[in-house]
non-specific serine/threonine protein kinase (Paramarasmius palmivorus), 452 residues
Amino acid sequence: MRITDTLPDFTGHLVEQYELLECLGSGAYGKVYKAVDITSSTKSPNHFAVKCLLKPEVGSRQEEFQLREIALHQKVSGHPNIVAMHEVLYDDFFVYVILDLCEGGDLFAAITETDSFKRDDESIRSVFVQLLDALQHCHDKGVYHRDLKPENVLFSKDGRRVHIADFGLSTDTRASQEFGCGSSYYMSPECIGKESYRTHYSPRLNDIWSLGVILVNLITARNPWCFAVSSDEHFSHYLQDEDFIRQLLPISDGANRILKRIFELNPLHRITIPHLRKEILALKTFHRAVPPVPHPSSSKVLEAGPRKVVTIYTEDIPSSDEESSDGSTVSSTLLSIGPTPIDQLLPIPPGSFSNWCGSSASTSDTDSESGPETPASKAVEPEVDVAVPELHLDSEEELREEEMPTPKIKQTAVFQCDPALRAIAKATKAAATLPPKYLARPFAIFRKETAR
């Protein structure tokens, strides 16, 4: 039984001045409600999203995750392209997080359901620059998201502004040991950690890689690969030829050059956000011109290229292959392709979408029976392997100096938290000393996009 199953129905309840109107979503650790501020004008009432969470046991691992998410989200909440956290309320049994209500749906739906960005350079540019500005704000504040993906980008009601949501997997650690933390399509190779000898990776540089995958999504409504490891067929092609994406997807030469700078395998050589912003604004078009199809009677007919067999992953084909932890099935079918219609290339998986404040690793594991479901948004916290603190290196320069594996630290240290986190801990009568952070083991590869 999930924690959510033990929660009451809060519909119609008052939490301070917020009346909870309807449940928008239900996850592993809480429920999200649309709420109205009853002190606001009846002619133009103010609506909010309220996450109702079970108050965790003092000193527990779940309390640590919940406090961390709240503190880091509060730290970056002042930016116009980040879902605002207004306040956190408590009673004896529950925690209520008051957030902006984003009623315009998420970026995943805009890409896959409404074709909002199909060959629309200015819409792509606008959304991507807003994401760059929001992420730069987070990084300037020392917060690294680690789960950037279209499902965690929400639109305002008028559809003009986007907001980054869901800080459940975020961290303030510049050099992380939590490998495999995020959603598989959007994780960088060094974050996956399967093919690297390094004992740390930079969450900041991993966020930039995730932006690159989102940019491919915006331009083509496709994913470039499932998992950035050499065993993934599509990523393997990219390792052999950096122009692989340009050859299979209808992106412009300029967009291809930008993507190659984002998908730099050496994270220390990856393009920075300020330079990326400049390149995006200067780019004339993200799309490759589509050549006209010759008339059958034409004396010159485009010659078909060589055909080859590739694996296209699907979710709707029954298979006896392994089943993921969230119930989705990893299945595949072989398609013979040559110069392929673009709709046969690796797709973003289909699904339904939320229109509220975003899911959370500590609040949402979306339940289709009780609220809108976002594919790939079932964020789960890393499983504990060894109780050691996550190292806080002074800077990413130490990553540069790390040429050989170093022994893992076996000591336990106190989790040093900032004043905001301590204030929240005090409000919930938490112990003065919080438990240590943990080293997580990588998760298995799941077909359905699942945050790790």
Notes: The two ends are 20 Å apart (CA to CA). The chain is about 25% helix and 15% strand.
